[in-house]
Amino acid sequence: MESQRVPTGIAGLDEMLHGGFLPQTANLVEGATGTGKTTLGMQFIQHGIAARGEPGIILTFEAFPEHYYRDASAFGWDFPAHEAQNRLRVIMSSPEVTRADLQQINGRLERVAGQIGARRMLVDSLSHFDRLSADPVELRRITYEFINGLKRLGLTAVLTRENAALLGETPDSEEELAFVADSVIMLRYVEIQCTVHRALVVLKLRGSDHHKDIRQYAITAHGLEVRQRFEGTQGLMSGTATMTHAEAFVAAFLSPGTP
Amino acid sequence: MPDGDDFAASLMNDIDPRLLELIHTRINSFIKWDLVRFFHDNPHTADTADSIARYTGRDVRIVEPELLQLARDDVLEVEELAGMRIYTLVEDRDTLNLIASFIRACDDRQFRVKAIYHVIRSLR
To answer: Which pTM value belongs to this model?
Structure first.
């Protein structure tokens, strides 16, 4: 039921998610640099504040809050005004501090969430947790603990994570992380006939069905726009798509100019 | 007739007395000035001296004593967490307004010159 969902505000994505994320879940958005992970997360926060009266928190590691204000402003979202009205907090910290804070009773993050009545959160990005441990098992334990700490706050969270591969397959370590998240959205660059396109797929939505097709998307002046599915191509997630047999047949024998 | 130094001082003192006091008592070094600007621009930062030094492009050995002084002077708050010392901007509205006035005033070159004069005198 749509009323039990937390819409992202991105129409095409909400349709794929059958209305949005499930409440109080941790949702991973993973993709290479420049694919729009942060934009998606900011749009989720903006939609909550502007359209649904749901205050939000942006927790950033290493990226300056003033960069979020500037980037949001390019989409027409006034984050400083939201902060002045106590509907948003952009918090910069480090993974070590955040991890320790979440282990406290009534820590800083919990207090801020309580002060503004936060319902949504963007964590940008989980990739910074990698420096906390070189051991993948320990890192998974730390990340799992962090995500559960966030869930304890009762927020619906979008967590971004950088994928080192610009095109093609996801490294194994990221599949590990996908296991602990409630939903996983992948943003990918795909090459089709010497042109780079952007592709979005919902890999997983725990506890609910979702659309499994691979959709095209664009970053417009108003944020992310999820468009129609890719047609006539296969192998998109490998990074280099090829035409389906039917499309190849059409291209070879039925295209204009064929005798 | 005032001598040259007195005349210069009287010109340099011609700024909002609240801001003059802020410079004399709390923003009395260029590192503190930089840190105050950083916290003003990124007001919900909560982090260690090590991270703040990195964010501001400075050496932690220089930044940490200045952070501690800003905390002592009620510009920042400091909290112990799991063996780490975490710095945040104070929530006191009067202090935040005063800092905002200082940062706004710094847009004016004349004010900056006067503020630099007072910081240099504090460093003597």
So the answer is: 0.87
